[in-house]
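Whiteboard transcription, Tuesday session. T.W. wrote the structure tokens on the left side:
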């Protein structure tokens, strides 16, 4: 239509399109583009059609004009207008239809990003180019459901020239109500949406409360103390949910740890181990996740040690040492005694070391080790001090030589005891103690000091005693050791027994000699006086009281007891005959070498 402006119309197909202004005619000198409206509002997901008409003079400057190209654009690229049919953002959604100087732009499946200003342009064979400016502003609105107190609202951002009717949907099923609000008591299991009546194919996005949240931990491998760990909470909800993290703590009210979907630990500590959960909430409801366990692995902490019973430890009682350490995984325990590199025993590779019927030798310093695959720690030392009654005392005397009258004598008593023993000295047949203390001194030793002495060691747990015997040796006298005395006596007895046998042997040999030899012998023997019999007596003395000088006159005596020592003087009668001449064949009435002895040993 040369010289006349054609009208442009804009309409929406598939959904109500709100025209915000009347048609606009643009042009000069026969050139022009006519839009029916400069502003259009359409609903997301719908299809919109924007129409225009264009005019141009023909002939122009003596030439016939024909239109060679028409297109729609919204932007420039490198100073060149981009045809919408070639724009990747509109690929498959845009159609440009022109016939009889009327062009239509159809956009399907509108998105919010399609909101823009659209221009139409045509170009002729004579180099004429014309764009209708300003263009048409398209606004894409998204129907939304919002919530209030027990009420839902269907909101449309496009200005409304009338009061449209709405349709409400619950869990995809239509429910009554034609207004933009709906009274309800929503719960987490329900979803709600709305649509403009007549355009049910383009409902609003559904709204619903949070689904059951899922929780995850990263890294998913074993968690070691000192590493970084992230807990994540996620759920499906519209509108989007708000998140809160909690740590389980019995029945106490839990303070929130964070109001973010992620809970960070950097670095994580052993104290962070525990049960965690999250809550997801929006206007339509609230859901709580299942528990997730965070198990932080860590090396043993310094072990603590204890002893039971905690009271004073007495020998013979049962004592238990306990080692404990906070560790994950659980620690293995080993007990040691200080200054020993080996284990005490195989049963001690456990938290408890049991010393049943504890002995004094068990006193000392003990410690334990706690170990797992992440490390090892050693406890402080614990002291075991076993209390016990005095052991059998040992006694000694100084000087160690024989005790002579007037000398000074020192007696010493010692006993192993815990607590230390007190010492008391007693003398046989005397009720009162002679002295107290480990050392007992006797100055100017006299005969009355001889006798048996007792040392008693005592503490609060018991007592024990040992005895000794002191005897006086008079000045200038001496005693052979018992072993030497006995040896001499035995030698004498043996000699006295063998001597008669030798004499008889010789006598028997002499009787077999010839007379000539006998006569010659008689001639050779001078005259002797008349035979005399000499009788000799010897006294042999035995005593059980002989003491070895090495024993320093010290004799252990168990309970005091008087031993009556009976010294018996034994007499050995020894008869010697002189060697008088004998005639051949003369019988001797008795053997001249006969020896008689009787030895009685005192009991």
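and on the right, the sequence the group agreed on:
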């Amino acid at each position: 239509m040369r010289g006349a402006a054609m009208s442009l119309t804009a309409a929406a197909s598939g959904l109500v399109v709100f025209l915000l202004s009347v048609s606009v005619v643009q042009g000069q000198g026969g050139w022009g583009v006519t839009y029916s409206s400069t502003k259009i509002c359409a609903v997301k997901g719908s299809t919109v059609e924007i129409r225009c008409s264009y005019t141009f003079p023909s002939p122009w400057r003596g030439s016939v004009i024909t239109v060679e190209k028409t297109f729609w654009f919204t932007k420039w690229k490198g100073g060149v207008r981009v045809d919408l049919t070639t724009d990747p953002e509109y690929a498959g959604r845009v159609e440009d239809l022109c016939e009889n100087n009327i062009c239509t732009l159809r956009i399907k499946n509108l998105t919010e990003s399609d909101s823009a200003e659209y221009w139409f342009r045509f170009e002729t064979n004579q180099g004429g180019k014309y764009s209708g400016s300003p263009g048409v502003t398209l606004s894409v609105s998204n129907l939304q459901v919002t919530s209030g107190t027990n009420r839902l609202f269907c909101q449309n951002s496009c200005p409304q020239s009338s009061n449209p009717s709405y349709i409400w949907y619950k869990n995809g099923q239509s429910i009554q109500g034609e207004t933009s609000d709906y009274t309800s008591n929503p719960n987490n299991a329900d979803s709600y949406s709305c649509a403009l009546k007549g355009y049910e194919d383009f409902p609003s996005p559904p709204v619903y409360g949070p689904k059951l949240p899922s929780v995850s931990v990263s890294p998913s491998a074993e968690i070691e103390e000192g590493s970084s760990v992230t807990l994540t909470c996620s759920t499906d909800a519209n509108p989007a949910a708000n998140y809160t993290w909690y740590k389980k703590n019995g029945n106490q009210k839990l303070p929130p740890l964070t109001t973010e979907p992620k809970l960070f630990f950097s670095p994580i500590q052993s104290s962070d181990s525990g049960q965690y959960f999250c809550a997801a909430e929006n206007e339509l409801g609230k859901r709580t996740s299942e528990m997730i366990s965070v198990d932080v692995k860590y090396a043993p902490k310094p072990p603590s040690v204890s002893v039971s019973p905690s009271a004073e430890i007495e020998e013979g009682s049962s004592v238990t040492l306990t080692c404990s350490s906070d560790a994950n995984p659980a620690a293995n325990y080993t007990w040691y005694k200080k200054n020993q590199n080996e284990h005490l025993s195989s049963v001690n590779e456990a938290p408890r070391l049991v010393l049943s019927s504890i002995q004094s030798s068990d006193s000392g310093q003990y410690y334990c080790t706690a170990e797992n695959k992440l490390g090892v720690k050693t406890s402080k030392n614990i002291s075991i001090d076993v209390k016990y009654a005095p052991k059998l005392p040992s006694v000694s005397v100084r000087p160690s030589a024989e005790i002579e009258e007037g000398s000074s004598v020192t007696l010493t008593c010692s006993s192993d005891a815990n607590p230390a023993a007190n010492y008391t000295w007693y003398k046989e047949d005397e009720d009162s103690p002679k002295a107290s203390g480990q050392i007992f001194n006797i100055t100017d030793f006299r005969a009355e000091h001889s006798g048996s002495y007792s040392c008693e060691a005592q503490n609060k747990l018991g007592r024990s005693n040992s005895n000794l015997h002191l005897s006086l040796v008079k000045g200038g006298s001496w005693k052979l050791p018992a072993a030497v005395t006995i040896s001499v006596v035995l030698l004498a007895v043996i000699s006295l027994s063998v001597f008669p046998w030798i004499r008889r042997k010789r006598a028997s040999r002499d009787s077999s000699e010839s007379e000539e030899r006998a006569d010659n012998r008689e001639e050779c023997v001078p005259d002797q006086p008349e035979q005399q019999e000499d009788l000799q007596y010897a006294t042999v003395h035995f005593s059980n009281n002989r003491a070895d000088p090495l024993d320093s006159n010290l004799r252990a005596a168990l309970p005091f007891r008087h031993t009556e020592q009976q010294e018996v003087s034994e007499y050995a009668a020894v008869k010697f005959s002189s060697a008088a001449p004998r005639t051949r064949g003369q019988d001797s009435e008795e053997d001249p070498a006969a020896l008689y002895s009787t030895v009685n040993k005192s009991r």
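Someone added at the bottom: The chain has six domains: 10-141, 144-208, 214-297, 304-387, 394-470, 481-508+531-550+565-603.
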